[in-house]
Amino acid sequence: IILYHASGKKQIIPFKLGTVNIITGSSDTGKSAIIPIIEYCLGQSEFNVPGTIIRKAVAWYAVIYQFQDIQVFIAKRSPIRGTYQGQVCYKEGIKLTIPELNELKPEHNDRQVKERLLQLLSLPTNSDIRNNLKVSEHVKTTIDNALFYLFQNQGTIANSEVLFHRQQGAAQKIKE
Q1: With contact defined as beta carbons under 8 Å apart, do 88 and 105 qualify?
Q2: Beta bridge partners of 89
Q3: pLDDT value of residue 22
Q4: What is the per-residue pLDDT for 50?
Q5: Could you tell me if 117 and 100 are in contact, meaning their C-beta atoms sit under 8 angstroms apart?
Q6: Contact (CB, 8 A) for 145 and 126
Q7: Among 122, 44, 56, 141, which Cα is nearest to 88's?
């Protein structure tokens, strides 16, 4: 994760590849912002990053995703007004260097990014899934549906009634 301050200063939060990453630390250090930042940089247009300090300090949020032989850099500006922002700076390559703030240009949108990520994940098409698994017509392969299985925040872990990230209101999607 890369956080860009308006001055151009970058804060980089590293993760270890090929392993579960568990974030721990003192209160009010930004742990709760990690999952919303990752989701925002996976093509979520709604900006759900908590905390006024981080919202005031960060001008752009970015994540580098590692696929087998390719890296994808996705950066999104902090919303100027409101809580929605769908423009994306997208770069991919074998070994990316982290761009400077003045190099970030929003030339793509959330929908395009989600479609490209599905291609890179080599997921079967929705018609393949329906034909092979005989699931209902309205089930779609999307990045959004995969998020239920990718994250476990503290509230999810502590709640004995919940198994998956953002499960409330999405039980039918998870079941399908």
Answers
A1: no
A2: 75
A3: 83
A4: 83
A5: no
A6: no
A7: 44
Residue 108 has φ and ψ, to the nearest 5°, of -130, 175
Return the SS3 of 4: strand
pLDDT at 146 (0 to 100): 56
Identity of the residue numbered 42: L
Q: List the one residue out of 148, 152, 150 whose CA is nearest residue 167.
A: 148
Between CA 120 and CA 127, with CA 125 as vertex, the angle to 5 degrees is: 175
Q: Which two tokens stand for residue 2?
A: 């890369």
| DSSP letters spanning 36-101 | HHHHHTTT--B-----HHHHHHEEEEEEEEE-SS-EEEEEEEPPSSSSB--EEEEEEESSPPPPPG
Give the pLDDT of residue 21: 85
Residues ≥6 apart with Cβ < 8 Å to 133: none
Nearest-5° Cα angle at 60, 24 to 1: 35
Strand pairing category for 10-12 and 2-5: antiparallel
Structure tokens at 103: 């190099």
Q: What is the mean pLDDT of each run of 10 residues along the chain (176 residues)?
A: 95 91 84 88 88 88 93 94 89 96 96 88 56 54 58 57 55 52
Owner of token pair 């980089």: 12
The single residue listed with the structure tokens 């301050």 is 5
